[in-house]
Amino acid sequence: MDLDRVDIVIITPTAAEWDEMIRLIPGAEQLSKFPLPTKRGRIGDHTVLCCATGKGQEETASAVTLLLERFKPRWLLLVGIAGGFPARGVNRGDVVIAHVIHSFDYGKLVDGTFLRRPDNDFNCDRLLLTWADIVAKRQVWRTRIPQARPNARGPEVSKAHVECYIASSNKVVDDPDHAWYAAVLAAFPEIHAVEMEGVGAGASARLAQIERPTGLLMIRGISDEPGSSAESGIEQRASWKAYAAATAAAFTGALIEELPKHSSPPPTPAMTKKEILRTAFSFLFFFALVWVALRMFWDFESVSPDERSRVVLQNMWMLFPVGLFVLPLTLLNEPFGMKLMWIFESLPEHIGVVAIFMLVITFCLSLLWLFTPDAASKRLLACGALTAFGAAIGAAIQKQFTKVSAKP
């Protein structure tokens, strides 16, 4: 298994939520070099990584930023428990899938009134939401819940609610009638659940989306009903938390198995014959420039100052036949400036071809040097062979540096 390739990262705030997810990843391996509890394995066709990130927005944001930078997954799933509101049809044992994550305590106090600001709100990934809706309608996910409901009813009672609006804050909302929460709720009355990590995960995902596609979806099992006195004892609440974590994990496992396999980044397309010619002749032109410069420097030592202008003209004429091939290729079908820029832009992409090409030139010039009796010609061939060999070594080093830099 590729040490760094991960399709989906699953983050769980607490140990109980992490344990439920790990149960769905048979043979998961521990990543000892990562600073948080992290295991990797496979669910369906996907390589997944599950990490216990800790509670709260700040802990989540810092952990997710590190995970996204280290593993660069296509999708990020935040899985855990939450408090739901029966008035919105959300009850204990249900699962909610966030459409929008609202930051409900970010805003401004003005004249004793809290004005909420939506700057940190996050819209979850549309593709993941569509697949979540499909999984919710099939209802097979409920058969995967390993625990019995604390109220002794069957798993068929549990529902999956898609397209939910979930409020996120570092404050635990256990009293929805509190004056401050009521003032905030007035800004968006359609809230299905409350939790404590979504905005932090959303902030990190939004940052990663600047560089690459990164989809986030939040899946929460409902363990509490804020403001409800029913089944509010310590043991009952602990049982519902365990069951809610299991329902969220069961739905997540079913969702991942349904997701289409994310294809790896497409490989660099093979060079066409036209591109090979353009790269070869472009590099040959610059190689000829260096060769001419070295030859002029060599010849200057053996001629008088009055003859140096003649030597410059003679050597410059050597560029003429090469230019006859390079310029038509450079100007063909594209603006002049773009073609000239292509010479430089194409070299890093095809640097391996350049290295091989220059080694071939070095070999050919070395053979000519062996069978050439004239001393002046030997000097000229030596200049060319050394220049080509230096270019090949430089290209090889650049290719290796590019490989190392590309690793996450």
Fold and architecture overview:
By secondary structure, the chain is α/β, with parallel strands linked by helices. The protein folds into two domains: 8-258, Nucleoside phosphorylase domain (Rossmann fold, 3-Layer(aba) Sandwich), CATH 3.40.50; 273-406, no CATH class. Helix content is 48%, strand content 17%. It is built from twelve helices and twelve strands. The strands form two sheets. It has a five-stranded mixed barrel, surrounded by four helices. The chain has a two-stranded antiparallel ribbon with strand order 7-8. Helix 4 (179-185) links the parallel strand 10 (160-168) and strand 11. Helix 2 (57-71) runs parallel beside helix 5. The two termini are 15 Å apart. The model is unreliable at 264-269, 329-348 and 401-408 (pLDDT under 50).
In short:
The protein has 408 residues and is an alpha/beta fold.
Task: Supply the key terms.
12 helices, single chain, five-stranded mixed β-barrel, 2 domains, alpha/beta, Rossmann fold, about 400 residues, 12 strands, about 50% helix, elongated, two-stranded antiparallel sheet
Which CATH architecture of the largest domain is right? 3-Layer(aba) Sandwich
| Residue share in β-strands | 15-25%
- Give the quaternary arrangement of the chains: single chain
Low-confidence stretches: 264-269, 329-348, 401-408
Largest sheet: 5 strands, mixed, barrel
Q: What is the total tally of β strands?
A: 12
When the domains are counted, the total is 2
Please bin the fraction of helical residues.
40-55%
Mean pLDDT over the residues: 77
SSE order, one letter for each helix or strand: EHEEEHEEEEEHEHEHEHHHHHHH
CATH topology of the largest domain: Rossmann fold
Helical region count?
12
Task: Output the radius of gyration.
Answer: 32 Å
From the helix content, strand content and strand pairing, which structural class follows? alpha/beta
So, the CATH homologous superfamily of the largest domain? Nucleoside phosphorylase domain
Please list the strands of the largest sheet in the order they lie side by side: 5-11-10-6-12
Could you give the distance between the termini?
15 Å
What is the CATH class designation of the largest domain?
A: Alpha Beta
User: Which geometry do the CA atoms define?
Assistant: elongated
